[in-house]
Design a protein that fits this description.
Layout (H helix, E strand, L loop, with lengths): L7 E4 L5 H14 L5 E12 L11 E16 L3 E6 L7 E4 L12 H15 L7 E8 L9 H17 L5 H12 L9 H8 L5 E5 L4 E5 L5 E7 L11 H19 L10 H8 L3 H11 L7 H8 L3 H8 L12 H24 L4 H18 L6 H12 L4 E4 L7 E7 L3 H16 L6 H4 E4 L6 E5 L1
Parallel strand pairs: 1-13, 4-6
Antiparallel strand pairs: 2-3, 2-13, 3-6, 4-5, 7-8, 9-11, 9-12, 10-11
Bound molecules: adenosine-5'-diphosphate and 2-acetamido-2-deoxy-1-O-phosphono-alpha-D-galactopyranose.
2-acetamido-2-deoxy-1-O-phosphono-alpha-D-galactopyranose (NG1) binds next to helix 3 and helix 5.
């Protein structure tokens, strides 16, 4: 059963200041009027970090911040992209010859990922051109998925211009796959929540097959996002892909240890599914099968009985082929324990115990510890921010998204919110070292927002 595609909503542009501004800028830029607008939101991942690409469920919600694009289809086969932010230069290319340069994650390449994904899905080689003006307000490189929001919005724009229909699940799957053209081997969390989000509810996102289930968050608490102000572009470094490869190698070694057909195995979840055992038991298997000292490529080849060439070309991604050590034990321990925390979080939300906020906070704190110590995807600024958030009233606080910078998410009892915001503002943004971006964008309470949409002028 395919769910409906993203809704098209009729709006009076004059009543929406951001749309009106975009429309005016579009006219100044292209000398014509946009025919429609599309938006796709960013997200905050509440719990379940770095486990989507291992096949495990995650628990994000969409945020209000989004990518908004004004669009005019044109008869030429030229794709013209402009951005309201002067940091992102204009770009133009033939719509029939999309080339995505993996060596430089320039902003327009994210648009091209979504564009190409839809083009390929329908097997089209002569695409109509379009003029697009992009306006985004998700802080970039901050773990709130600005990149995926852009890929998803571009995918939705392309689908709309083609006059085709796809379900939200199909769109999410296409965009998850096509964002990998940028070079990062991400899971599908960001694209899934961008399309499948619904206002007022977080979602448990499960994979293979992709599906989303409502998770009702506690009414007595607020989720607060705080930006460490350390920006980190996933595609410009190899941190992210190294983790994906470490998980892949750990899955293969665990599968081999358990006598499974390891060469077909890519994800840690597949090992668990093949063994038919629980996550607790997988942690014990990990302790038996792997050692905590880092593995050299040579040792991995010996364990798997493959050549260095096979390891490099058949298992590793292009930007991880020269990595000297892989930490398999620590990464697998993080993944199996984090996957268990996601289910515990959902169960607590369903059972609504009296000390719910405290229990959820404890899980978020454990998640941060695991990200910091086992997965090593935190950084000193994130650790400092998490400590400050806890000190001023958060029941739990953790990094969110890929890490190595970006944002934290904290669960704060509703009555403590005003003092929490004032104190964290003082302690992190003013006292330690004055951070530049305006206060509202750095520290804000957030609620589950809605998913991607097309707007037509009424
Ligand atoms: P994240 O998805 O966590 O925000 P990424 O490093 O994956 O971080 O993606 C950030 C990149 O997305 C930016 O470097 C930029 O290329 C692109 N991007 C983000 N916001 C915008 C925007 N408003 N307009 C154009 N490109 C954007
Ligand atoms: P962000 O926070 O957008 O960099 C990345 C991945 C997710 C997930 C998280 C970590 C992409 C597009 N996104 O998100 O799939 O693995 O890291 O949980 O690669």
């Amino acid at each position: 059963m395919a769910a409906e595609g993203p809704a098209a909503r009729r709006v009076q542009v004059a009543e929406h200041p951001r749309l009106l501004k975009l429309k005016d800028m579009f006219y100044s830029k292209f000398g014509s009027m946009p025919k429609f607008y599309a938006r796709a939101p960013g997200r905050v991942n509440i719990i379940g970090e770095h486990i989507d690409y291992c096949g495990y469920s995650v628990l994000p919600m969409a945020v209000e911040q989004d990518m908004l694009i004004a669009v005019e289809p044109v008869q030429t086969h030229t794709l013209q992209l402009a951005n309201t932010n002067p940091l992102y230069p204009d770009f133009s290319t033939s719509a029939n010859n999309i080339d995505i340069d993996k060596t430089k994650p320039l902003w327009h390449n994210y648009f091209l990922c979504g564009f190409k994904g839809i083009q390929e899905h329908f097997g089209l080689n002569k695409l109509t051109g379009m003029n697009c003006l992009v306006d985004g307000n998700i802080p970039p490189g901050s773990g709130l998925s600005s990149s995926s929001a852009l890929v998803c919005c571009a995918g939705l724009v392309t689908l709309t211009v083609l006059g085709q229909k796809l379900s939200k699940v199909e769109l999410a799957e296409i965009c998850a796959k096509s964002e990998r053209y940028i070079g990062t081997e991400g899971g599908g969390m960001d694209q899934s929540i961008s399309f499948l989000a619904e206002e007022g509810t977080a979602k448990l996102i499960e994979f293979s097959p992709l599906r989303a289930t409502d998770v009702k968050l506690p009414s007595g608490a607020v989720f607060v996002i705080a930006n460490s102000c350390v920006e980190m572009n996933k595609a410009a470094t190899s941190h992210f892909n190294i983790r994906v490869m470490e998980c892949r190698l750990a899955a293969k070694l665990l599968a081999k240890y358990k006598g499974l057909q390891w060469d077909k195995v890519l994800r840690l979840e597949e090992v668990q599914a093949s063994l038919g055992i629980g996550l607790e038991e997988m942690l014990l298997v990990t302790e038996d099968a792997l050692h905590s000292e880092p593995y050299s490529p040579k040792e991995i080849c010996r364990c798997l009985g493959i050549s260095m060439e096979e390891l490099r070309t058949q298992i590793l991604s292009p930007n991880t082929q020269d990595v000297l050590t892989f930490k398999l034990y620590q990464r697998a321990k993080h993944v199996y324990s984090e996957a268990a925390r996601v289910y515990q979080f959902k169960k607590i939300c369903e059972e609504v115990p009296d000390n719910m906020v405290q229990l959820l906070g404890d899980l978020m704190n454990q998640s941060h510890t695991s990200c910091r110590d086992l997965y090593e995807c935190s950084c000193p600024e994130l650790d400092q921010l998490v400590d400050i958030c806890r000190k001023f009233g958060a029941q739990g606080s953790r990094l969110t998204g890929a890490g190595w910078g970006g944002c934290t998410v904290s669960i704060v009892p509703a009555e403590k919110l005003p003092s929490f915001l004032a104190n964290v503002q003082e302690a992190y943004y003013q006292r330690s070292s004055p951070r530049e971006a305006p206060e509202k964008q750095n520290l804000f309470a957030t609620k589950p927002g809605g998913g991607a949409l097309v707007f037509l002028e009424a």
